[in-house]
Amino acid sequence: MSRARVLLLNPALGPLDYRVPRGMEVEPGSIVVAPLGPRQLTGVVWEPEHMPSDAEVGDNRLRNLLAVYDAPALKAELRRLIEWTANYYLAPPAAVLRMALSSSSALEGGRTVLEYRATGLVPDRLTPQRAQALERIGDRQGLIRELALIAGVSDAVIRGLCKAGAIEPIEVALDTPFAPPDPDHAPPELTEEQVAAADRFVAAVEAKSFQPFLLDGVTGSGKTEVYFEAIAAALRAGRQSLVLLPEIALTEPFLRRFAARFGELPVAWHSGLRQSQRRRAWRAIASGDAKVVVGARSALFLPYSNLGLIVVDEAHESSFKQEDGVQYHARDTAVMRGRFEDIPVILASATPAIETRHQVELGRYEEVKLPARFGGAQLPDIAAIDLLQDPPPRGHWLAPTLVNAIEETLERGEQALLFLNRRGYAPLTLCRHCGHRFQCPNCTAWLVEHRLIHRLQCHHCGLIAKPPELCPECKAEDSLVACGPGVERIADEVAALFPDAPRAIVTSDTIWSPAKAAEFVARMEANEISIVIGTQLVTKGYHFPNLTLVGVVDADLGLSGGDLRAAERTFQQIAQVAGRAGRGTKPGRVFVQTHEVNAPVIQALVSGDAESFYAAETEARLEAGAPPFGRMAAIIVSSENAQAALETARLIGKTAPHIEDMHVFGPAPAPLAMLRGRHRHRLLVHARRSLDVQDVIRDWLGSLDWPNSVRVAVDVDPYSF
Ligand code: ADP
Ligand code: ZN
């Protein structure tokens, strides 16, 4: 090849052609360095027929490629996925490519990673914990966190061993392979139902052909144990597995269970990695040395050399939908990757999305069910507390029935969890005198009081302000009042009611790293916490056998002002948090505080009749022509210039093509009419399933011009509609 088409890592650019200098070998997928003006950019060689160029350049005007990276070429399967993602989500291909190359930090940077290993020296003070740690670590090497996970001790124990000279840091070369997990290390004895489910997955992994599965099992039924068998099958076949988790805080319990089952850790991929670690993981993924990878959604685009299985755990979670940059849905894109790689994809959930259930009904996804909890544990009873009949005392948020239940739980030495999906102390602060409300200057949002750190904070743009002493409007003193509860306020109420019960607040403010999550899990397991007050961060994944009571502080929160997905989202959230109760031998109880006991979603939760709830919701979607029956796309027009944003939104609205079975609503102010100082308008495109909406939108927007200050982003299959 003397001429190569290259997709550069710059989303503003289309593909460009270069000359391949004599002696340089490139093929489609090769990762290269190319000149652009005075700069050098990383890019990937593409088949010209897959990546049309809009400017054909004559051979004599081509510039030379500068170098080829010493890394495997991106496989055709991954290149097809990148093209599909760019097409489907109307994103620049280079922006998708960036996720595969992890910008280009995966290619550049240091040559070693700092790890730790035992020196063989026995410390003077050999506590049983230290002895256990040294024995389990053996001749392994890894990060402090990883050694702690393998040894089943805290990070502090490993650090202590470092101080004592029993463990030392070493520089590890980037191409050092990760220790492979052992499929036969400690397989569990599966129940009959679990065996049936696992067999189905194992057969699919062995067959190595595309098949999406919905692993639909109640909370605590052993979904993880079952898909571990699929991973074991992939390991035996010498193929890689990828497990996507919705939340990096959840990787912690996952890693521990994985290490217990397979004797080694999987390779973790998330935003907390240092550059050298990222680079080592990327290389191991590309070479095939990383046998099992667990990560957040971005791990989906990595260049696996021989992927054999993808698992999306908690597949209903909204965090699989990326909301900025390339607005893709990792669950749906995972299924597409499975299709290009021709491998099985397992979507695991106790509360599958209506879209996923619909795929099962259409026969496209195969459903595998685990209807019962493991070990005879019962699903907890869910009861509604009618806040109109059984109200909390004035200025309080917990109804007497719930307070009694907490008391009984504490008396039995068991643990309770209170769920409220609101960070901070209070969602709104206002002045009692003049009614002034504290609003974010950059966003259509109230500033949230965080009392623990004594700050007001905008949860949308991150703005942080000191709470003032006086009302900035009327200058009244001591006139500011907090309205409504956040988790910190509930924690205060709990402290007043049960002063001796140790509490923990679990939100992204307190659990912001895997190490923090590990600390929380350890304290729960040691029974050092009696009452957890948490946001959606505590609703999933955790398994605490002594946790027997769950209280949902405000079930109405997600229902008000809601879109078509509001009831489904509320159902999933409450069913998931309820699923934290009674997972061991002790039965669990759940109380749901609401003003709307008769709302269908509350009734469904109380009666346990998920099927008729789903049926009714699905029917409502069908009638509205909403997804999964119709297609939606949101066009968000934003600018710091209010006039420019409005005019562009109107222009887009006026030029909407007239197509049968396609309707365009708006423009209207977007749900956040102002965000980070940008004025936002939204148009909603609603069409029949069979219409190629992307094509229509591409042509439509492609024919228009707008000022440079305006950004137009398309959200295909938006999460809220
Ligand atoms: P899910 O993912 O469906 O919520 P888990 O896989 O977390 O369920 O299982 C719940 C608990 O039951 C976990 O502690 C798990 O280790 C345990 N468990 C499930 N199946 C088995 C089994 N066959 N043998 C031993 N423990 C099991
Ligand atoms: Zn803001």
TrEMBL record:
Database matches in SMART domains: DEXDc (SM00487)
Domain annotation Helicase ATP-binding: ranges: 204-370
Catalytic activity: Couples ATP hydrolysis with the unwinding of duplex DNA by translocating in the 3'-5' direction; ATP + H2O = ADP + phosphate + H(+)
NCBIfam families tied to this protein: priA (TIGR00595), PRK05580.2-2 (NF004070)
Family, similarity comment: Belongs to the helicase family. PriA subfamily.
Subunit structure: Component of the replication restart primosome.
HAMAP family linked: PriA
Name of the protein: Replication restart protein PriA
Lineage: Bacteria, Pseudomonadati, Pseudomonadota, Alphaproteobacteria, Sphingomonadales
